[in-house]
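Methods — Computational structure assignment.
A single polypeptide chain was analysed. Its primary sequence is given first, followed by the predicted tertiary structure written as C-alpha cells.
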Amino acid sequence: MGSFLQSIRHIFRPQHRFTPLEKQINYIFKDHRLLHQAFTHRSINPRPRENYERLEFLGDAVIDIVVTKLLMKEFTEGDEGLLTQKRASLVQKPYLASMGHLLNLLDYLEIESTVNLKMEKIADRQLANLYEALLGALYLDGGLKPCLNLILNTVWTHREEAWQATNFKGRLIEFCHSHSIGSPRFQITNVSGPDHQKVFEVHVKIGNNVFPAGLGSNKKTAEQAAAQNALEMLQN
C-alpha cells in the first residue's frame, strides 16, 4: 500500500529538478528545502545551514549506524575486528563515491564553475559528500526507514565488490613502496582469550614508527585491521 501511494504521489506531484532523483530512490521529500541544501556546495552558499556540509556530517553518522546493524545481523559470530574491517570497506569515501555515481548525484550539484569536476579526485570527493548529505536530508525528512532503503539498494547491494576490492595490507605495502619509506613489518604483540575465542593483537612497524594495533579473531584479520590503521594515519 505504501509503495502504491508513493507511485500516486509521483504521478500527481508537480515536476521539479529533483523529480528524477526522487523516483530513483523511491522517496518523495516533504521538505524540498532539505534537498536543495543537500546539493548546494559551500562555494555557492558559505552559510552552514544553507550548504550540504551539516547534512553530510549527519549522513556520515546515519550510514555508520545502519551499516553496523546490518553487519551484526549478517555476521552473528563476527568479532569487533572483523565488523570494523567490513564496515570500513563500506563507508570509505571511494566506495561512497561509486554509490554517488550510480545515482548520478553530480547532475544535481550546485557549485561554482571554478571547481573543476572534470578532475576525477575532485569529482569523487563531491560524489561521496553528496551521498552522505542525501542520507542526512532523508533522515531529517523521513527518519531512518528511507535511509535504510537507500543503503540497502546501494551500499549493501554491492557490498561484496567493496570487500573484494579492500586489501589494506596490500594497499599499505604499495603505499610504502611508492613513497620509498621502507616495507611494513607486522608483529603479533599479544594473544588473549580462551582457545575457542582468541583475540590477536598486531602492530605495524615502518622504519622507527609503530602504528596503533589491529585486533582480530585470527592473525590475518588482525593484520588487515593494523594495516588499515597505518594507512589512515599515513594518508591524513
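Note: The chain has two domains: 15-165, 168-235.
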